[in-house]
User: Fold this.
Amino acid sequence: MVLWSLVLLAVLMLVPFVIVAMNAVKSPAEYATGGPIKPPHGIDLHGIVDFWQRVDFGGKLLNSVVISGSVAVLAVVVSVLNAYALGIGRVRGRTWILVVFLVANTVPQEALVYPLYYLANQTGLYDTRLGVILVFTIIQGAFGTYLLSSTFVAFPPELLEAARIDGAGKLQTLLRIVVPVSRPTLGMLMVFFFIWTWNEFFLPLVLLISNENQTVTVALGVLQGQRMMDATMTSASALLGVIPAIAFFLVFQRTLTRGITAGAVK
Amino acid sequence: MLYRVLAIVAVLLLAVGGCSSGQGAGQRTLKLWHYEGPDSAMGAAWALAVKQFEAAHPDVKVVLEEKGFEQIRKTAPMVLNSKDAPDVLEYDKGNATSGLLARQGLLTDLTDEVTRRGWDKLVTGESQTTARYDDKGVMGSGRWYGVPNYAEYVSIYYNKDQFAKYGIAVPTTLDQLTAAMDKFVAAGITPLASAGQEYPAQQLMYELALTKASRDWVDRYQRYTGKVDFHDAAWTYGATTFADWVHKGYLSKDSVGAKAEDMGLSFIQGRSPIMVTGSWWFGRLVKDVKDFQWGSVLWPGLTAGSAGNMWVVPKGSKNKDLAYDFIAITMSPPVQDALRDAGGVPLVRNGSASDPKAKEVTDNFGVLSTQDRLAFYPDWPAPGYYDELVSAVQKLTTGTATPSQVLDEIAKPYQENLANVGR
Assistant:
C-alpha cells in the first residue's frame, strides 16, 4: 500500500518533467499540429541547439556556477563563524539575534529589491556578479546561522572542554574540533545553498541587467515574449536549465543524506 | 578541508574579477536593447537595421542585447536610473509604461529630433498618440518621448476552408458574424477560439463594447478627457453580449483557463474556425497553418490597436546622436519593407507586399489608420489593470458574476487610478 502510493507520487512528480522533455525534442511544426501532450515522432534537437546559441548558454552556465559556488562557500563560512559565536560562544541576547536573522530571512525579496538596487547602484556593484554574490551570501548566511546555531548548541561539551585543557585557543577549537565534527552538516548546507542560489530568479533578474552577467534562470526568461511564446524552445530551455541542478544534486547526494542523518542522530 | 574551501573561494573570486573585460580604446559603441525574438518580423527587420547602421558607421560597434519582456518590464525604471542604461531600447507604449518613465524624467525628450528628422511626417494620426506624453505622463499630447516603428491591431482571422464547407460568407458586420457562428454551433463546432487567462477574452469584450462606441468614448476612457461611465450603452453591450456569446456556445466555457497560446493552437489545428486577435499572430499563422486556407477581415467599427512598441532614448544614454541615427535607419523604406515582408505591420508604407496575405494585413491597417479606427487596448488606462480585467472577464465567462457586477468590478480600479493621475 505504502509502496503503491509512493509509486503514484513519483509518477505524478515526473509527469511535468516528461512533458517538458517531450516538447523539448519536438519540432515547432509538430507542436503546432499535435499540441503539447502528443508524444514526439522523432527527436529534433533544433530547439535546444538554437536556444544554446541564441543566449550563449555556456556563458550563462559559467556565471551561474561562479555565483552559486561562491555563495555556497562564502555563506557556509559566514554561517560557521556566526553560529560559533551564537551557539557555542553563547553570546548574550543570542535568542533575539537569531529572531532578527529569522525575520530578515522571511522578508519577501520584492521588499528588498529597491534598497538593494539603491545600495548596489551607489557602491558601483549594480550589474556585477560580485554584487549578487554578496547579497546572496548574506541572505543564505542568515539562514545558515539560524540552522547551525541550533545544532551547535547541542555540540558535545566534553569535546570543547578537552580541547581547552589541551590548550587550544578559540580559533583552534573552531578549526580543529567544531568544523571537522560538523562537516556532514556543513556539506549539506553548502549543497543546499548552491541549489537555492542556482534557482534564484528575481534578484538576479533585477541586479544583473547586461546579458554577459546573466545567470541561467534569467536567460530562460528571454523566451517569454510580450504576447507570443515559443513552446518548443521554452521547453528546451527549461530542460537545459534544470539539468545542471539535477546533476549537482546527484553528485552530492551522499553528502546530503549523510548531513541529514547526522543532524537526526543528535 | 579549510584550505580546500579557501582555494575554491579564491578561484571563484578570481574568475569574477577576470571576466570583467576592458573597453577598446577609441571605438564607440551603441548599446541597443530589444525584446523581439529573432524569427519575429521586428527581430528580422531590426537585424537588417543593425547591419545598415554598422555599414554607415564603420567606427561604431553595435552591442545588441536581446532581453525578455518581463525583465524590461520589471527593471526598466531601475536600469534607466543607473549608469548602465543602454543608449536606445524598445519599450512598451502607454500611460502605465512609457508615460510613467517620461513623467519620472528617465526618458529623453525627442521632440526637436522628431521635427528635425521629419518623423512626425511618417508617424501620423492616431499612431502619434502613444509616442507623445504630457507632464502627467498621459498619452496623446505634449512632447515626444518615443518613436514607434511598427503597428498592430485586432481583427478577425477565419478558416476559409471551414467557411466554404458550411457555405458561409465572409462576415463584414457583427450580424453576419453572429449568423456565421450560429451555423457553426448548429453543426456542433465551437466557432470562436478564446483564452480567459490572458489578453484574448478581455480584448473580445472591449471589441464588443467598441461596436457601440465613438472616438470621444475612446478618448475619455484612454486619455481621461472626460467622465467614464462603466454602465453606459457601450460597456453594457460589451459585457452582456460577451456573456450571451458564452451562453450560446460561440466560445467555450472551458476557455476561461486557457492561455493565448492555447487559443492560437486551437485555430492553427483547425478546431475553431474563427479567432479575434491581434496582428502579432500573423507571422505565426503564416508559418504554422499548413492544412487549410485562412484570411483576415476587419472587425466592424473601431478596433483595438495602436502603433507598436517604440524606441526610447534613456536620459542617461551616452550616445544620443548614434541612437537617433539608428532610429532613423529603422524608419527607412528598406527596413520597413523588410518588416512588412516578414509578416509585420509597417508604420511607413511604400507600395504593397507581394504576398497576398501580407498585403491584406498592411492594407487593412491603412484603412484603420485613414478612417481613424484604432482604439488602443482595454488594459492601458491604469497600472495593473490587465490582471483586474482578466479576473473580471473570467467571472463573466463562468457566469459567477452578472455583466453589471463585472462592470462594477472593473470600474473601481479605473476610478482609483484617475485620482492618482489627478484627473
